[in-house]
Write a structure and sequence with these properties.
0% strand
Length: 68
């Protein structure tokens, strides 16, 4: 990926993470279309899914005390 593509990915992930942290949904709705402007849709899905998975795992870990 070029530098401009990496910047687009980082900005879209940051905006998507802010949206997800405030509303609980929305990260893939922002990241996938934004990344698909600079990469193929297949790459956009993979690159968008990885930070979403990381954020979901962090949320699960932070809320583990509510499981029982």
């Amino acid at each position: 990926m070029t530098t401009s593509q990496i910047v687009v990915v980082m900005v879209s992930v940051i905006i998507g993470a802010i949206l997800k942290s405030t509303s609980g949904i929305g990260m893939p709705f922002v990241t996938i279309p934004a990344i698909s402007y600079v990469a193929t849709i297949e790459e956009a899905v993979v690159v968008g899914a990885l930070p979403n998975l990381a954020l979901n795992l962090a949320l699960v870990w932070a809320q583990r005390s509510h499981w029982s």
